[in-house]
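TICKET #2291
ISSUE: user wants both folds in one file
ATTACHMENT 1:
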Amino acid sequence: MFDSASTGRLENGLSGTGAFVYENSYWLVVISFLWTIGSLFVVTIGPVTLGAYVAIRNLDSDRNRVEPRRVLAVVRRQFVPATVFGLLPPLFLSISAGYLYSLSGGITAIRLGLGLATFYTGLYLSLVMMPTFVALADGQTGGEAVRTGVRWVAANPTIAMLVGLLTLGVLLVTVVFSVAFVLLYAGAAFSIQVRLVDDVGET
């Protein structure tokens, strides 16, 4: 299903992520907990996701520690684009769920087509938002960041899909144990995304 070159690049990108997660487990638990609390309001999911990305960037740098003032400064500066970008994938996926649920009352070509189209759009936006939020964390403007995200997914479609599947896998495993979701999901999933986007690049 996936070509060996993409799989190899994914394995290389993942090679150090396990050690990174283990060595920074304390901070990643804190990040996961704060992300879960912050995401409860739904409209704040973008800013808190950006904050988690910036915090992981801090840990994955020479400073090797989370700097709250730096995190808050980036979130304040990028609050509007982060809010918009954070809401787009769940918006389209929710619309898709509504159309697909309506099929239980009778299948029509229009409902099925709209359901599949909005599902595909939500899925595509979910993949694009991973490199987009990394770019926002690096200080790019909203327009520059989303263009970076689109280029990255276009250059690495297989790896983008694999990272999406890994993120879904982490979500499903941690949801089974509700406490694990609160304490592990965001830290583990976002660490994978941030490090792989960096390691793979746009080539």
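ATTACHMENT 2:
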Amino acid sequence: MALEVGVLGYRFMGKAHANALSRLPMFFPDAPAVERRVLVGRDEEALAEAADRFGFESTATDWREVVDDVDVFYNLGPNHVHAEPSIAALEAGTPVFCEKPLAPTLETAREMTDAARRAGVPAGCAFNYRFVPAIQYAKELLESGELGEIHHVRGRYLQDWLVDPDAPWSWRNDEEMAGSGALGDLGSHTVDLVRFLVGEIDRVSGHLQTFVDERPVEGSDETRPVTVDDAYSAQLELENGAMGTLEASRFATGHKNDHTIEIHGSEGSLKFSLERLNELELLREDDRGYETILVTDADDPYVDHWWPPGHVIGWEHTFVHENYEFLTAVANEGAFEPSFEDGLAAQRVLEAIQRSDDRGEWVDLDREFE
């Protein structure tokens, strides 16, 4: 029997996940059968148009009518809408897949994670970059000890869509709705990759900056204040003794969606860039320089489901891999990672970076969040 899926949100992430759900049966025939049952939103006209394009059977303007009437609930709405529908779905015993960051605040992320623990059903957090084949290959190398003892990790996520001061205000510029700016929206992805690849973060020192204090409201003469960061940077100490640096910005002129991570060990190093997501730059101990590895061989993770070796895949394919793993966990009543626990762990790091900026001092996560 097909899993009936309800999806809240039909814009950027709604489209990305609807595309993934539609591709699953063609490229992942062992994936659970899925029925795109209902699309949830507020604007009935836009909702109906989106449901028609995305292949959903019906629409609803109230998530309360959906969460206990489907087999799986996807919460792809803005950050401030993550908690209430997700918790209601979990209390109804419905598995939930939620966009990142898990919540606008650490307190809300804890409430969501507590609900997931009580429910005992899969609860996934949408850190899709874990499902890039090159990232999976990097993890294999790190777990096998190929790079030796890890000394450094360096992550950055750069965009430039807000560098124009006349770019319109959106919910992403509001602390109450978004929680934070570049830190949560972009930094949560990098924090998750650091945890996934290298390990847990012990201490942080953070700095946040807002470059434009107010922005015009589209279609009016009004402006609204920007109450979140436009950029952040942070220094890290990790449990395994490695040190790290992170940064993200929406003001990095010339960078559209530049997410990179570098890891340096005693016996080698690797570099990954989302702008070249089929490649991994790898240096082993006796190499003279970095080797560019095209991660498209048939035995690379997920690649055998797509095209012959050498035929590259794109950003949207990471959502297919992510949906495949999550829905398989739901069908088999198994575990899925990244889970709400991972979302909460990332949220602790984000909160620590904010508190470090507020206080002008390093923040020890265990001591801060006892």
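RESOLUTION: both attachments delivered.
EXTRA DETAIL ON ATTACHMENT 2: The chain is about 35% helix and 25% strand.
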